[in-house]
Amino acid sequence: MDSTAPEAVIDSRYVRACDLHLEEPELQPFCLVIFGGVGDLSQRKLLPTLSHLFGNRELVQNFSILGVGRQELDDASYRNFIRKALDKYSEEPVDNEAWNGFAGHVYYHSMDVQKDHGYAALRKKISGITIPDDEGNKNVIYYMAVPPLLTPIIVKMMKTHGLSGNAFAAKILVEKPFGRDRSSAVELNRILSDSFSDSRIYRIDHYLGKETLQNLIFFRFSNNIFEPLWNRRYIDNVQITVAESIGIEHRGAFYEQAGVVRDIVQNHIMQIIALVAMEPPVGFKADYVRDERVKVFRSFRPMDDSFIDEYTLQGQYGAGIVAGEEAIAYREEKNVAGDSVTPTFIAAKIYIDNWRWAEVPFYIRTGKRLAQRITNIVVQFKQPPLRLFGGSGDQLYPNILTLTIQPEEEISLKMGIKYPHENNKIYQADMKFNYNQNFGTKPHPAYERLILDCLKGDQTLFAREDGIDATWEMVDPMIKRWENNPNRNFPNYTAGTWGPAESDRLLEKEGRRWHTS
Ligand code: BG6
C-alpha cells in the first residue's frame, strides 16, 4: 500500500479532523435597532451594508431595521435619508429593485436617548415591528453606533424600561472605543453584563471582520511548512504597520480625546498581533479561538517608564503633501486645539513573553497622514550563520514574508536566488499571491460578516471581556506616560511621509529597518 495515499494520512492518529461540526444556522426574523441611526457610522458603513445584505431578501424574509436618533424624522423621510446615504457611500451603484425590497423594512424613532421619557414609546415601536420567530421569540439586536459616552447611559435606560429584560430575546453590538482606559472598560463591561449575558454581548473590532485578516489563520494553520518556523528560533522580528493616508477627517472632537493609541493600537493592532502570535485553536468554536487570542494579550511584557521612553515614540502631523494634494496640519483641523498634544502616530516595540515568542521584537507602527494607505505584517526570518555570497561574502538578504491586508490582499515571500551569469551574486526574488488576481473578486466588507455572525450567534470574531481588559492593561501605562509628559515638539512629522525620523531610528539602533516604506 502506498503510505502517502490520502487515506493513510487521514487514518493517522496524529492527523485528524477537529471533530467540531460547524453548523450554518438559519437566520431567524429579527429587528435591528440602530442607536445613532442618522450618524456617520450608520451612513457610511451600516446602512450600505444592511441594504446590500438584505436588499434581495434571500437571507431572511422577515426583518425590520429601526433607526433611532434625535433628528425629527418619520419612517418615509428616514428612508429618503438612507437612500441618499447609499447613493453617496455604497461601493456599487444601488440596485433599485433591491432598494425597494429593503426600504419597506426600515423604520425610524425620534428621541433623546439621554431622557427617560422616549423609552416606553421605543419599546412599543420595536414590539410592533418585530415579527416573532417560530418559537415566538422577538429577536432584537441593539447596535450602539453612538459616541462612546452614550453607550452606558442607553444601556442603563434600556434596563430600567424593560428593553433588555424578558420582553425581547435581545443582543447588543457595541462599537469601539470600548472605554477610554482599563477602569472605564471594566465599568462598561459591568453595566453591559448587568443587562445582557456575555453570550449576547458582541464587542466589535471591525478589523476582526476583515476577510483578509482572517486569512492569517488559514495561512498559518493550513500550511505546515511555516508552522515549524513560526517561533523565536527562526523569526528575527515581526513588523506590523497600519498606515493611513487620510487625516482625522471630520472627527476632530473625538480624536482630540482619543489619540492614536486608543483609536488603533488598543484594538486593531492588538487583534492583528493576536492572530500572528496565537497558538492553533482546538477548533473553530468561538471560545476556543478567543481563548488563544486572549492568551497572547496576557503574555505581553508590561512596559515600565524606562521601556516606554526608550522603545515607544509618538508623533503628530504637520502640513504636507499627501498623494499630490496639500494637507493641513493636525493642529489646523476643525475642533482641534491650536496647541494640541494629541498623538496621531506611534511606533513601538512590544514583547510577548511566552515560549514561542520570548525575545522576538514585535515592532508596531500606525499613523494618520502617512505616505500611503497600507496595512501589513512583515515577518523577517533569521539569517543563516555564514554568509557565502557576494564578492567578499557579504551578501545575504533575510527571508521576508509579507502579509498585506489592505488596500489589496497579497502574500509574498522574498528569497535569495542566484543572479544569472554572475558567479556569486545573489538576487532577492519575490513569490506572490494576490487575492484579486487569483479569485477575481473583492473580499467581503468587514461589517457584512460581523452583522451576519451576530445574527447567527457566532462570537468568534468579537472581542471578549477578558481580552479587552488585557489590552487596556498593556496600553494604559504608555498612554499615561505620554499624557503626563506631552511632546512639546509637535508637529514632528510632515504629512505624506512615514512619520517622525525617530521611528526609523527605533529599528536602526537594533540593526534593523522597516520593510514597508
Ligand atoms: C477606525 C478608526 O476604527 O478604523 C479610524 O477609528 C480609522 O480612525 C479606521 O481610520 C481604519 O479602518 P480601515 O478599515 O479603513 O483600515
Structure in a nutshell:
By secondary structure, the protein is of the alpha/beta class. Helices cover 35% and strands 20% of the residues.
Estimate the strand proportion: 15-25%
Going by CATH, the homologous superfamily of the largest domain would be Dihydrodipicolinate Reductase, domain 2
What is the count of β-strands? 18
Helix content: 25-40%
Which structural class do the helices and strands define?
alpha/beta
Query: What is the overall shape?
Result: globular
CATH class designation of the largest domain: Alpha Beta
Low-confidence segments: 1-5
End-to-end span in angstroms? 53 Å
Strand order of the largest sheet: 8-12-13-7-14-15-16-17
Number of domains: 2
Kindly report the average pLDDT value. Answer: 92
Number of helices: 15
User: Largest sheet, if any?
Assistant: 8 strands, mixed
Radius of gyration: 25 Å
Task: Provide the CATH topology of the largest domain.
Answer: Dihydrodipicolinate Reductase, domain 2
Using the 3D structure, state the CATH architecture of the largest domain: 2-Layer Sandwich
Distinct small-molecule ligands in the complex: 6-O-phosphono-beta-D-glucopyranose
Q: What descriptive keywords fit this protein?
A:
disordered N terminus; 2 domains; alpha/beta; binds 6-O-phosphono-beta-D-glucopyranose; 6-stranded parallel β-sheet; Dihydrodipicolinate Reductase, domain 2; single chain; 15 helices; about 525 residues; 18 strands; Rossmann fold
